[in-house]
């Protein structure tokens, strides 16, 4: 039996739409076994069939390597909620490719994994950190494979993660983002992306907060998250330095470098928003892992 573990990811990190992402300490585990028929367990019933994203990625990877598809049993055990902006779809895509490689004796490099997973997901900002760990800035040069710049995130930083009970589907959240922006907005974003990555590396909260002022997506997407304003106010008055929408939402992520502040804030959030799940996360440095059981 093969077990693949893939971390959740926070894409965009506010300022870096479709460009930045960070792996965090919340995980999905997937086991794969050859079987007589396809069986998928451990996920909502609606996904227990051939349209399951893990299985689709498994089949797609086999086709990529010219291999015949074959039946498998897949069991999913996940801490990553579906359609909440924590990269649940990327965990499925990465696991499917790694499962296909492991069961057919293929060796895939992390670089190859990023390329195949990006082709399935459509953008690399979740899959790249899910595979490589840490924070990653990724882009795809014309006609080439994705390039990934990996940034080690300061171990001091804590990411207070608030997961509302409602879903926001990425496809819907992409529709509210303007397709064109003025040059001044492009310039606004560029320096701040550099500021944010440097701030994460240095654990420089002031720099992170100064850089986290997105004008591409957050002003439009906040309306899709009914609790955005109230949670933001609670986080910023409760000691966090800044907050962003994780991926396309609905999860919100606040940042501090003080473990006591993180705990106080988590308790306050649980009191005020009992219907939300909250976690104090750190950056995952390892990315996707495989074990032979
Ligand atoms: N455990 C699972 N089993 C099968 N499919 C899943 C599972 N988890 C997620 N998915 C697939 O991923 C889709 C959700 O992807 P979506 O991109 O909307 O959200 P996300 O990946 O959780 O968040 P984001 O991309 O904003 O970080 C689901 O509709 C489903 O197709
Ligand atoms: N960059 C993507 C991440 C969600 O998959 C978005 O914000 O739409």
TrEMBL record:
UniProt key word Ubl conjugation: no
Compartments (UniProt record): Cytoplasm
SUPFAM superfamilies: GHMP Kinase, C-terminal domain, Ribosomal protein S5 domain 2-like
Ranges of residues in domain GHMP kinase C-terminal: 204-274
UniProt KW rRNA-binding keyword: no
Domain (GHMP kinase N-terminal) ranges: 52-133
Family membership noted in the UniProt record: Belongs to the GHMP kinase family. Homoserine kinase subfamily.
Protein's name in the database: Homoserine kinase
């Amino acid at each position: 039996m093969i077990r693949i573990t893939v971390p959740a990811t926070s894409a965009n990190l506010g300022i870096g739409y479709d460009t930045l992402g960070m792996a965090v300490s919340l995980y999905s585990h997937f086991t794969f076994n050859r079987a007589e028929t396809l069986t998928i367990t451990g996920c909502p019933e609606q996904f227990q069939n051939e349209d399951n994203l893990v299985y689709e990625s498994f089949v797609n990877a086999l086709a990529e390597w010219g291999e015949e598809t074959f039946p498998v049993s897949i069991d999913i055990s996940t801490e990553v909620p579906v359609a909440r902006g924590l990269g649940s779809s990327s965990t499925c895509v990465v696991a499917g490719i790694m499962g296909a490689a492991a069961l057919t004796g293929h060796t895939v490099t992390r670089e190859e994994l990023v390329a195949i997973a990006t082709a399935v997901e459509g953008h690399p900002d979740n899959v790249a950190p899910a595979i490589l760990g840490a924070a990653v800035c990724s882009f795809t040069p014309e006609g080439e494979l994705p390039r990934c710049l990996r940034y080690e995130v300061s171990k001091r930083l804590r990411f207070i993660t608030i997961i509302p009970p409602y879903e926001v589907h990425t496809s819907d959240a992409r529709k509210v983002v303007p397709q064109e922006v003025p040059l001044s907005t492009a310039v606004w974003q560029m320096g701040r992306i550099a500021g944010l990555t440097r701030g994460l590396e240095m654990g420089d909260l002031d720099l992170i907060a100064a850089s986290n002022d997105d004008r591409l997506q957050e002003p439009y997407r906040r309306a899709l998250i009914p609790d955005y304003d109230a949670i933001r106010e609670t986080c910023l008055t409760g000691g966090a330095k800044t907050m962003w929408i994780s991926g396309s939402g609905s999860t919100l992520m606040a940042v501090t470098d003080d473990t006591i502040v993180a705990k106080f804030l988590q308790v306050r959030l649980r009191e005020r928003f009992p219907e939300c799940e909250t976690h104090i996360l750190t950056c995952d440095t390892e990315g996707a892992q495989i074990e032979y059981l």
